[in-house]
Amino acid sequence: MEFLIKGFLKTSLIEWPGEIAAVIFLPHCNFRCPFCHNSDLVLRPQNLTTIPEDEVLVDLAKRRSWIDGVVITGGEPTLQPNLPQFLLKIKQLNLKTMLETNGSHPEMLQVLFKRNLLDYLSMDLKAPFDERYQKATGIKVNLSDIQKSMNMIRKSGVNYEFRTTVVPGFLSKVDLFDLAESIPWAKRWFLQQFVPHNTLNPEFTKIKPYSKKEMEKMTKMLREIVRTVRLRGV
């Protein structure tokens, strides 16, 4: 089965904290978050050029002496059944691996943890675990799967972070406080600035992001519950 790659950023200094990494973008997603800025990967992946897997692996092999690892993102990477095989090929190049996921497929995460295929993991947390999560994802989500993934990550021994995109009108201070109370044990939680560009729902391009001052104030408040809360993209 072909491993679908729709984007390849050869070097990134920001995607993986403290590491120089290549970034691989995979198509398709089971969520329809209206504020998502990767709308082409989610809605129109067939319009994007497929990059041959072998081409990417050859490039990584050539540059493995000066990059630390590879970030797999999307879309939602865990939708691809041959993700474990691809991650193994990266590990065989003596490169570290990071996965970005929405946490909706804990069974795939279980396979990846069991095979020791991950060095770092980033999981999106969209909203508090009630009807607000459904609103943020644009579909009916199995919240028990999301929470199962969270607990699996917590116990895995793999270094990790949670990420939440803070969208005005979707996430208020109260919403973030409610979410924080669900993860007081979190090792690292990044609040990401909303980017009103190329959004899944075009109406969201009209939303003005929170100011840096507002984001900093929310971060300080949340540190009363989750010890390590940081800002990204502000």
TrEMBL record:
Q: Name one GO molecular function term.
A: catalytic activity
Matching entries from Gene3D superfamilies are given as: Aldolase class I
Stored InterPro entries? Aldolase_TIM, Elp3/MiaA/NifB-like_rSAM, NrdG2, Organic_radical-activating, rSAM, rSAM_sf
Name of the protein? Anaerobic ribonucleoside-triphosphate reductase activating protein
Tell me the organism.
candidate division WWE3 bacterium CG06_land_8_20_14_3_00_42_16
The UniProt entry, under Pfam families, shows: Radical_SAM
Which superkingdom does the taxonomy of this entry point to? Bacteria
In this chain the Radical SAM core domain maps to 15-234
Q: CDD domains per the record?
A: Radical_SAM
User: Is the keyword Manganese in the record?
Assistant: no
Which keywords label this protein? Answer: 4Fe-4S, Iron, Iron-sulfur, Metal-binding, S-adenosyl-L-methionine
Q: Does the keyword Metal-binding apply?
A: yes
Cofactor field: [4Fe-4S] cluster
